[in-house]
Each structure stands twice: as structure tokens, then as C-alpha cells.
Amino acid sequence: MLADSLHVSSYLSSWAQAQSLSLGWIQLKQQREGASQALYPGADWHAMPRVMVVPVGGAETVRRLLEEFNVSLRGRRVFIKVNAVDFRKGCYTSPEAIGAAVDAAYELGASEVLVMENSTQGNFTRLVFRVTGIADVLKRKGAKPIYLDEERSVRVKVGELQVKLPKVVYKSLIEDRDGFYLNMPKLKTHDMTKVTLSLKNQLGFLYHDDRRIHHSRFELHKLIADLYSLIKPDFVIVDGRHATVHGHYPLEKMLDRYIVPMGVYIAGDDALAVDTIAARILGYDVSEVEHLKLADEKHKVSGRIEVIGDISRFNRRYPHKHIGVYPEGVKIVKGKERACEEGCVDNTLMVLEMLHVDYGGRGEFSIVFGKGLDKKELENLKPPVLIVGPCAVEEAGDFLKKRYRKVVEVPYCNDLAAVLTALMKFMKLKATQLVPIPATSLIAEWIKAKLHGSTAHTPPLF
């Protein structure tokens, strides 16, 4: 089992090993054929997708990575899809890595560099770029931010689903394919998908309306794989300065348990191959990550990847589930038949944990999820009651509204903004307490976003 073979005693070993990584570019190139033949005897290594694992560096490192894969950017527009789901520490691609990529692109002759994201539900991208410092880096480097939640949309078929994508993404990366597409995720585990890397990063192309519907056990993994079939990055650089573990939403007051120094970029021109190696570095095989497994069944990458760089030092399986520190006064009821971690359950519990640990939120209330609910439990809840997901709303909504005076229904699988709004009210918190900038600045950013057409789902500011 991979889990057994990739176990070490502590995160500290990862830090020590990261400091000792000093392979030069010449050494990396010299070891290529021998290492690949050793991993896959008899394989034609020239035909194998290549993934490079190199020490983190600045613009020169990024430029050399691109040159190693014969990337030509002269006269081209470069679109960089970063991971900036939230401004919480450990949630986003580092501004340093983004700045290095912008500089490298211009050094290689790019005519324009555009950096894009649509942040998670409950947030808006303009604010995330402001708080994280990404906006400042882009301004200094001469790159243009694209806040995808503010862009006009076009309806597109992705697999069996009809979803909206930003028109700029559809025109430049799908229809005309006139831009160079660099995907720059952060190296993170994920509560619902085990890892979140370049393929999962593309879920940020969807608007919040579609995410709250399709983020479920029955659609999420296939949607990610189908998005990859529709939109393939030209190049991927995983920002592995640090890995984020225990899920994708670190608690800032317990940050030492979530952040693991790694000190590497993981890069290549085959996104699925890069994700396969990055997942392995986190301790997960393709067969354990459903969206990678589905993509690999179609694109046939695993088992024939040429790895340039030593990954043997990464020998721990990092936890992907959140820690689970909830306020004592909350009663949680899950359906016996169904309660999807990918849908109504895990994001709700992570928000509950975050509001409690990082902001001191507390209170007595109940949260109900899923299908196949125990009626005796429903008869003994602590009001107010939050019902999350279509299964629970359909099965118990009417009963609970008759029995308890205050009931909030969230009828979607993963409506983070609605869940956040309800929990903040139950826990007596305001949105302004969650954002580390003055309230006047928050309001100004929100007004600018709305004036530019943002469709982001956010809680009320007051």
C-alpha cells in the first residue's frame, strides 16, 4: 500500500529534506535517461510525459523550466490561472511564484500577461487579490488581473453538463486557442478530492451558480475530469513552496499543523502527469484520487511518466481531512442513507470549524445533512436549525419548520455563501470581522466588483 510506503515520523523531516535539495539543472538533465529507464525498464522515455521537480526559485527558474520544454511565448498573450480561492493563509498560490512567472513570461517575449481566478463561494476575487498581495504584485510586474466572477459568461457543454464559463476563457483557451495557458495551482490536499492541483484548479472557471449545484459526490469528480478534456493547460507549475495538509482550508490559529515546507516546483507540459507526481509527493496514488483516476482512464498517463528530479525524499502520506474542532453547543445530525462529503457535509463543517477556532464563534444550534434521517434525533434538536442540501431539505424541511421556530434551509449541495451567512448569524459574527482590512476598504472593493458585474455569492457585509 502506498500509504504504508510513504510514512515518516514527522513533518520536520520534510523541512530538513527540502533544505538539502540542491540538484543543479545540468545534473537534472544528466540523470534524465538513466532515471527513467530505471523506473520503467524498456520504456521509450523520449515518448513519455516529462515532469520536473526542481528547487523553488525566481524568474530564472521559471524561465528555465519553460525553455526546457521548448515553450515559445514571443508575441503571445499568456493567461495564468492561479489558485486564489480565499485570502486565508495557505489557501493560495504564493505572490512570489506568480511574480516569477510574470517576469519569466515577459523575458521570453510575451506581449501581455493576464492572471485570472474566480474565488470560492462566500468570497470575491477582487478582494482576495487585494488581501493576499497578488494585486500589488501584478501591478508592479505589469500584468493584468482578470476577475472571472466579473466577466461575461457563455454556456458550454462539459461532459454531460451544461455550465457557464467566462467568455474570455472560452474564446482564448477553447474556441480560438490564441493564448498560452499556464496553470499555477498551490500544492494542497483537499477534504473532498484528496488533492487539489491543476485539474481541480480549473473548477475555478465555473461561476458560483454552477458550483453550488454540481459540487456533489455524483458530479464533482467527473466534472473535473471532463473540464480537463475540454481545456488542457499548455504548461503547469505547481507551487510547492509549502504543502497545505488537513484539507484545503487551514485554520490560521493552528497554522503549524497545516503548512509543511517542501521547497519545490513541480512542472511539465502534461497537466495530468504533473498532477500524478504532485499527488504522489503528497502520498496519494492516482487510483485513490477519483478525478485523476477518471482522467487517466481516458488519457492514459500513469505508469509512463518521466520524472526529472529526486522525489524519493517525499515519503509521507499527508492527511487530507480537516481536524474537526467544533463548538460544544452544536448538534450535528447526518442521514444514515446518504450524507455526501463532497457536497453538503465537509465544506459546512470546515466553515463551522473556521468560525469557531479563528474568530471565536460559538452558540447552541443544530445542523442537519443528508438522507435517511433519524426522526428521534430530529425531535430533539437545539434550535435554531440549519438544514443543508437538497436531500435533507426534501426529507425533513417541512417537519422541522413546523416543530422549530427558527429554521434556515440551504437547498443546494454546496452553497457556501448561504451556509456561511447562516452560521455567522447563529454564531453572532459579521463579515467585516472575517476580512483583515478596514471595513471601508472592504466596502470599496465590493462596490467596485459589483460595478464591474461580479456574480460572486457573498454574505451580507453587515
Task: Explain how this protein is built.
With 462 residues, this protein is α/β, with parallel strands linked by helices. The chain folds into two domains: 2-308, 3-Layer(aba) Sandwich (Rossmann fold), CATH 3.40.50; 330-429, 3-Layer(aba) Sandwich (Rossmann fold). It has helices spanning 2-5, 12-19, 25-39, 59-68, 95-107, 125-132, 134-141, 167-175, 198-201, 208-214, 220-230, 271-282, 290-299, 341-357, 375-378, 390-403, 416-426, 431-434, 439-451, and strands at residues 50-55, 77-82, 112-117, 144-147, 153-158, 161-166, 179-184, 186-190, 194-196, 235-244, 259-268, 306-308, 330-334, 365-369, 385-388, 407-410. The strands form three sheets. Strands 1, 2, 3, 4, 7, 8, 9, 10, 11 and 12 form a ten-stranded mixed sheet that branches. A four-stranded parallel sheet has the order 13-14-15-16, sandwiched between helices. A two-stranded antiparallel ribbon has the order 5-6.
Quick structural overview:
Helix content is 39%, strand content 19%. It has 462 residues and is α/β, with parallel strands linked by helices.
Detail the topology: elements first, then pairings.
Layout: H1 2-5, H2 12-19, H3 25-39, E1 50-55, H4 59-68, E2 77-82, H5 95-107, E3 112-117, H6 125-132, H7 134-141, E4 144-147, E5 153-158, E6 161-166, H8 167-175, E7 179-184, E8 186-190, E9 194-196, H9 198-201, H10 208-214, H11 220-230, E10 235-244, E11 259-268, H12 271-282, H13 290-299, E12 306-308, E13 330-334, H14 341-357, E14 365-369, H15 375-378, E15 385-388, H16 390-403, E16 407-410, H17 416-426, H18 431-434, H19 439-451
Parallel strand pairs: 1-12, 2-3, 2-7, 3-4, 7-10, 8-10, 13-14, 14-15, 15-16
Antiparallel strand pairs: 1-11, 5-6, 8-9, 10-11
Helix pairs in contact: 4-5, 5-7, 11-13, 14-17
